[in-house]
Hints:
Helix content is about 30%, strand content about 20%. The protein folds into three domains: about 1-100 and about 200-260, Adenylosuccinate Synthetase, Chain A, domain 1; about 105-195, Adenylosuccinate Synthetase, subunit A, domain 2 (Orthogonal Bundle), CATH 1.10.300; about 265-420, Alpha-Beta Complex (Adenylosuccinate Synthetase, Chain A, domain 3). The mean pLDDT is about 95. The protein has helices at about 15-20, 75-85, 90-95, 105-120, 130-140, 155-170, 175-195, 200-210, 240-250, 280-290, 310-320, 390-400, and strands spanning about 1-5, 30, 40-45, 45-50, 65, 70-75, 95-100, 105, 195-200, 215-220, 255-265, 265-270, 305-310, 325, 335-345, 350, 365-370, 405-410, 415-420. The chain has twelve helices and 19 strands. The relative contact order is 0.16. The chain is of the alpha/beta class. Bound molecules: guanosine-5'-diphosphate, 6-O-phosphoryl inosine monophosphate (IMO) and magnesium ion (MG). Magnesium ion binds near residues 38, 39, 40 and 296.
Amino acid sequence: MVDVLLGLQWGDEGKGKIVDFLAKNYQIIARFQGGPNAGHTLYLDDKKVVLHTIPSGVFHPGILNVIGNGVVIDPVSFQAECEEIESLGVDLKACMLISERAHLILPSHKALDKASELAKGQQKIGSTLKGIGPTYMDKTGRNGLRVGDILKADFKARYQVLKDKHLQILNQPEWAEEIQSWEADFFKAIEALKQYQIIAAEYWLNEQLIAGKRILAEGAQGTMLDIDFGTYPFVTSSNTITAGLCTGLGIAPKWVGKVFGISKAYCTRVGSGPFPTELLNETGDQLRAIGHEFGATTGRPRRCGWIDLVALKYACMINGVTDLIITKADILDEMPEVFLCNAYSINGVQTQHFPYDIINDSIEPVYVKTEKWSKALSSCTNVDDLPEEFNAFTRLISDFTKVKVSFVSNGVGRHQLITL
Ligand code: GDP
Ligand code: IMO
Ligand code: MG
């Protein structure tokens, strides 16, 4: 079977930590979309590690980690990430497999990402500028270069053709210079990439499934950033949802088992775009400060607000979530009261549906509240420790979404997780 773990909000829900925790139940961890725009944080005792393209199972001996065809790889940042993880004693050449069908992020894709954001001005997406959008555009536009191509004799020639196409679009000599200044590192990193196991991952994964192996598919970003169902156009360029694992790994739906959906106990977003429950006040600042809400990839401050059950229920529906995981519950320990949005008021009309035109509709969130936890979540170690106010909070979530809350995370550490 393949279980999937993915974010239900705008990313950064704590996927890295939870994959690292659940990894012991699986033989294979596989990333199926996204790329270096992701930043998945794990703690190995006190050591903090942030993974971008490498799956979050690499610190478990015996587990194999797959980078699927749906992922986009920037050879330069990938090389740096591999070197960092290898310096921690992980043999990535043995425990990591890369799909030959995964697309490559070229230096000119990063230039296009920058140029596109500059041109959008105030309307910019707030992209991580890692070249994600332009790379997926070339994939669907049938121009892209794939990992398997680096092993071909004509790779450099094909690189040149695509780069020339990009230079025509960019149409400024400065970009040509900038791209050229990145190329030496790019081609060095291509040589480094050749050292890893590049395989027909869809065949390999299906053979493993038939042999009874258990796979955990690790999502990146979150459902509200999904290209189809997120807050378009303020989204990323891939399918971040359960369906994305089928296309991003080559695994048929019949193999899909559990769907672990992660939500913070509140809500954050980094980059631009609609965020109905955003708190542009002291409470928002307090959540950011206590929750250390700064991007794991770009260091940007994350926008903060209360949990949005309307968006969460929508995300549970789209993904077929079987188990909810609530993270960062401890961050609300100091809040005098905790709010949950259970409806939107749009032009005076209440709805529990996530609207299509979220950009233009003026949405007033409608809240219910729970009282301050009578006991700090950070001090709880099992389900019987949890204060009644927090139990009321999780009940509101599961009653609204119709999905059970299976785990609560109450700290950064690997084992700070309570099974309900
Ligand atoms: P991801 O992208 O979904 O993997 O999440 P990030 O790593 O970008 O951001 C989540 C942040 O919250 C990281 O710094 C984690 O160490 C931290 N974190 C995860 N779960 C918890 C939790 O339950 N409590 C606290 N205090 N921090 C957590
Ligand atoms: P993880 O996996 C949070 C956001 C960016 C921007 C938008 C588009 O760590 O949860 P892109 O670079 O993809 O073109 O940016 O998506 N974004 C994320 N926000 N967590 C992420 O990943 C993100 N990956 C992209 O901030 O608003
Ligand atoms: Mg992150």
